[in-house]
Amino acid sequence: MKTQKIPVIGLLLATYACQPPKPTTSTVELPGERISTYVEESPDPIYAEHVRSTEFQSPEDEMADFILPPGFEISLFASEPDISKPINMAFDERGRLWVSQSSEYPIKAGEGEGTDRISILEDSDGDGKADNITHFANDLNIPIGLLPIKGGAVAFSIPNVYRFYDTDGDDKADHREVLLGPFETKDTHGMVNNLFRGLDGWIHASHGFSNISTVAGSDGDSVRMVSGNTFRFKPDGSRVEKTTDGRINPFGSDLDELGYHYSADCHTLPIYQLIRDGNYTQWGKKEPNLGFAPTMMDYGLNSTALSGLVYYTDNQFPEAYQHSFYSGDVVTCRISRSTISFNGSTPKATRQADFLVSKDPWFRPVDIKIGPDGAMYVADFYNSIIGHYEVPLDHPERDRNSGRIWKITYKGQEKEVIDWSQASMARLIEALKDRVLHTRMVATDELVDRYGKEALPAIQKFVNHRKTPSRQLVQGIWALHRLGELEREHLDKALQHPDLLVRIHAHRILGDRREFDPQHFEWTQKGLEDDQAHIRRVAAENLIVHHDPSLIRPLMTTLLESSAEDSHLRYALKHALFRHAQQAEIIPFMAGETWTDQESDTLALIFSDVQSAVAGEYLLRYLHDQKPPEKRVLPYLTAIAGNLPASRMEMVVQLAQRIDSEGIFDYQKAKALNQGLTLQGINWPEPVKNWNLTLSDNILHDLTDKSNNWSESEIDQLNFATEISRQLRIKSHIPYLQSLVDKNYLDENVRIAAARALMETDPNSQASFLQNKLINIDNNLGFRQKIATALNIDQSKKTRELLAEGMDNAPQELQETIAALLANNREGKSELIAIIRAGKAPARILKQRNVEENFLVNASEAQLEAFELLTENLLPISEERQQLIAERVENFEQGNGQVLSGRTLYEQHCSMCHRIEEGGAMIGPQLDGIGNWGLSALATKVLDPNRNISENFRTYTLKLKNGQTRSGLFRREEGQVIVMADQSGQEFSVSKNDIAEQTASTITLMPDYFSTTLNQEQFNDLMNYLLSLR
User: Fold this and answer.
1) Under a CB-based contact definition with an 8 Å cutoff, are residues 94 and 129 in contact?
2) pLDDT digits over 466-475, tens only?
3) What CATH class is the domain 685-693+702-876?
4) Strands (E), 390-542
5) How much is the pLDDT for 438?
6) Can you give the residue ranges of the Cytochrome c domain (predicted)?
């Protein structure tokens, strides 16, 4: 539908079109396309070893193994015993290098038992090597992120971010106080890392892998961070704010001249240009309908251990190596280089030849920093082992003492290091013009932190001068903003400055204000209409945080006029509209306006991610009046059902039934409504229940008797129908469900879903039927194991007895599955002891990790005594399993002809949880480049998956209020449900209100039966396929 309100916008556009265009210059060169000189090479197999087989080398010998481009040279800045294991580095205003070190890593010390330290390294005689080393603090617990500030430092040490004070100037911390914390530290991968001072004066940081932390500033406002996140906080700890959400394990940050923040993520991509408040992909996170925040590169580095990131803005390196990104890779032992070009405001990285390669596989570049001398400093966590869950955390070959810091320079380009702590105000103001960004940043910090408001007259003088160089002007207005003294007229002039650099930073300062008034919104609207994409981008990001109804239409107009190629600008605009729609006082205005068809489509997409009854009503009207793209229909139905009350569901069902779309079936529409109601946490109203019942009746009637060759759509329909049967406990469906279970040529997931539905519907009459499937040796082993799990839904005496009977003469893997199920409750534990004593199962089964873990929880004294007696003379599982691994590796045969067979095995057993390139699921880690692990590590992970478990892949057992238990991998919270994944890779949801108890397990979701289900030939096939993935 066309509208009558467009002329208003047209008039505004016409008004601005009448104004003369602004002259645009820039002191910052925006790089164009560069031709990549990178050539893909096969990495040396030595880099695939999780425990390096080469010998330890002295720093001198290691230095001989570095390969650098012509003209560059590397020297040793510091090493053991002066330092230990460096993790993060930072320079202070005197040019000294501060470094956090940990011999504890990756196993944290007990409370008050830490021996790690932060040290200050100074090259006092200018010979390129640290000769004055002071240990600032030496009782820490895996310190990572650190930042020297006036009178001490801010640094992380488990479990807090501390402010360390040096009150007497001896470069040693006298006392400390908690600024933020405690942070969760169950996983020690990244925790709080890579602190840096932003242009805004705040301290920016990254939050690492797996941990879930909720921390607050002294103002009481808190942020919650799940796994990878970035955040900022004031140096005094008064406030903390999340800056982005998502990614896996960010570990490395830097800024460019335009003020963009770049960040490395260890597990996904080495470079992201972050969008303010951006929502990035993450394991277990459901992608919003708007999509995740975009990336800036279409290549990876074949590694999941990318750490350290710098954007080189100095001039010590030759011009060809300036304005480049440098990324550390602790697996392939190198530093990569990428260059950047822009399409509008969207950056695109291009891979160049690796900058540094080490032939010593112990080289681990965990952090990179550019020093005040323009040299590159590399923290080398020198070690034969770097991985967490690839190698036991307490492995004896983890080096605890050796560490090096390397300095890379270009010959003949030495620069003087200036002690800015002694510089006069006039010298600092002059330094604000410097072409090197780091110099300008340090000078600004010194003016603000050391001189404070005493510097105001001098800063205001050059800010007011019309011939002030742009770089100096940018730093000056940032300094005034940080001091709270930036006058409106200063900002107004900067926003209209002819230099793009100044205008960009003026808009960044505008967006950093806590409160917006009408004038600020007017300036921001002008920014949205600027002819420069970077200005539009910053203005859009400002409106992610600051909201006003008057900016809705300008945001919409800018979005619809923006280039499809400028992904970062488009995301920022959509995200700003989304944040506006989340405001209860603004969304009615958005929903009540009259929009064009294209604008309505955009608004519907945005509203589909908003939890609001207003959004639900808008989408209901939209689906009634419009015909959206087919891919949007089901998400919109889910959003409607998730936002509207039960009283509206009759109308919703009627609407869904009327939607006529060739590619969408009625059962899919019903399933979409079911999902929305589940997220909202309300029971199905009668109209929904009746529609589901009718649909499931029809599907089971039409498809159950089909002889063979079900299509994917028909399989999906059967899964839907069995789930409805389970939820509604429809006894009339029992014959259909039994028939599905009986069909051994039917998709196994459907058969098991039918079995679960039978046990939920009428366990007393159906348990014996399912036990027949359990003991039938004609059924495959995996199916019988899943039938056992289905039987265990009803934990009655009868079911326990049927499970116990199923152990008699059963294969070992099936016995282990049943034993783990019986061990879940006291009555089952006694049953299991009786079975073993009767000789129907070996005592060895009690030492299987999942059986032992279940058995020992809440066991009686008599049961514990029986357990000890039955297992006292058994060889530990780990030794037995290690013997098997060694045997399989020794008998491994490599052959290209086996890759295809191995791929078939992978698709059968692994693809439901793992992804390679674009194929498979994202339940477990991505396996791109997994062949770089090497044979030994892959064999260990497949044959003994519970040996080393990352916290992010630990399973949980939920005890439900109805007596049932569910186990799986935690994925995410959605509304009123917890979403988990089972061993088949299928997600399932449990209402939070139904959970009585949640317990973490010591086992992972990955099945622990490949040691017996794969023979040597199959093992060879699978290994050949996985090793081919490099």
Assistant:
1) no
2) 999 999 999 9
3) mainly alpha
4) 404-410
5) 97
6) 897-1030
